[in-house]
Specification:
The chain has 13 helices and three strands; from the N terminus they run H-H-H-H-E-E-E-H-H-H-H-H-H-H-H-H. The protein is mainly alpha-helical. It has one domain. Strands 1-2-3 form a three-stranded antiparallel sheet.
């Protein structure tokens, strides 16, 4: 009875998106297991399944979170957007001052008692996308008003992205671009979008100058760019070199689960460079299948947006979907040496912890939109405003 009810609720959401996430999770389990066996054997007294079991529990909880969030009416996220944005600013400032330093960057904070660590940028990403979508929905008639409509959108984007950029440039840039896309689809004037880009460049330049004079992440950013530019010469980044070898080993077509060799030499073969491990074990065809899954996810999100009858629902769903897909393609671009090393994970594929759970929240919100948006009558809303067309 309980299981049949769960299945019935899942069917009320978008089955294709559930299928995509399930497919990515199965691939993730197989590749994480093969790429962590030797590591687990060395660190955990021969228990080669240690990381597999851990990753399985994290993925399972991520899917449970997606299911729970799907059952929440997406309108509540509009109401929570302002509070979440304020909490994001507080948490990001706290992280910069007191956060845990990992790989020379302060991105993590720990929750007392339960001793759980998470990246505050993951929470801030959700909050800013919700806030921008909500503001565009509420201020539909004031979008052309610079001070009344545009500044309330631009200022939070600059503040959140600027705080994230101090320790995590790649995430900040993805979030900035995602919000520009939301603004464009929300029919914000191009002159205001260009103003936002100019404002972003000013903030970017200021943070780069600040990092240069304070000895922050500037040297790391420059080092990664220099190694990327020199990747055609003998000064090849160690990670990129092993990633290229792994991809070359895979060839065009291959089916060799657990047969990766470079995963024993490639740092983060189960995380930042998991796409290289996928190609080594399943060939370029396997890599192309993963790309297809992410494109299919984006296509399905766009279809949900086109069917939506509320501006907030449409913008929030598309913003969350775009952020996941953009991150995925940047990660894969790094693996094939098209982009400098960033440290971004591959959503629902890389081994991780709370990042998978936040991705589960994002997918759950998209599923909630697909489930509720067609059945909600806007005219019953006391703040009802006529529907605004999107640039889709």
């Amino acid at each position: 009875m309980f299981l049949s009810r769960i299945i019935e609720n899942i069917r009320k959401g978008d089955l294709l998106i559930w299928g995509i996430i399930a497919s990515l999770s199965v691939i993730s389990l197989a590749v994480v297991y093969s790429s962590t066996q030797s590591l687990a054997f060395r660190r955990h007294d021969g228990n080669t399944e240690f990381y597999l079991v851990k990753h399985l529990s994290v993925l399972t909880l991520g899917l449970v979170i997606a299911y729970i969030v799907q059952e929440i009416d997406h309108r509540y996220f509009s109401k929570a957007a302002k509070i979440m944005l304020l909490l994001s600013v507080i948490m990001l400032i706290y992280t910069l001052q007191f956060g845990s330093e990992v790989n020379d960057a302060k991105r993590w904070i720990s929750i007392p008692i339960i001793n759980l660590s998470f990246q505050t940028s993951d929470f801030a990403k959700l909050a800013l996308i919700m806030y921008t979508s909500r503001t565009l929905a509420v201020k539909q008639g004031k979008v052309t008003d610079f001070w009344g409509g545009f500044v309330p959108i631009m200022a939070p984007i600059g503040i959140i992205c600027g705080l994230i950029m101090l320790e995590n440039m790649s995430t900040a840039l993805i979030l900035f671009v995602t919000n520009l896309i939301i603004m464009f689809l929300g029919r914000v004037s191009m002159k205001y979008i260009l103003t936002t880009i100019l404002f972003g460049l000013v903030v970017f330049s200021g943070i780069v100058a600040y990092s240069y004079h304070t000895g922050g992440r500037f040297s790391t950013w420059i080092g990664r760019i220099e190694r990327f530019m020199d990747s055609k010469s003998e000064n090849v980044d160690y990670q990129v070199m092993n990633s290229n070898i792994a991809i070359a080993n895979g060839g065009w077509i291959r089916f060799n689960p657990g047969g990766c060799t470079q995963c024993n030499f490639l740092p983060e073969a189960y995380s930042d460079f998991i796409f290289s491990t996928i190609v080594e074990e399943y060939g370029l065809v396997g890599g192309a299948f993963v790309i297809f899954l992410y494109l299919l996810l984006l296509y399905r999100v766009i279809k949900i947006v086109q069917e939506s009858n509320r501006i907030f629902s449409a913008l929030m769903a598309l913003g969350l979907g775009m952020s996941l897909v953009i991150q995925a393609f940047i990660n894969m671009g790094v693996a094939v040496n098209l982009l400098p090393v960033t440290g971004l994970t591959l959503p629902f594929l890389s081994m991780g912890g709370t990042s998978i759970w936040f991705n589960g929240i994002a997918i759950g919100i998209i599923l909630s939109v697909s489930k509720y948006v067609k059945n909600y009558d806007d005219t019953q809303n006391k703040n009802y405003q006529p529907k605004m067309e999107l640039n889709v």
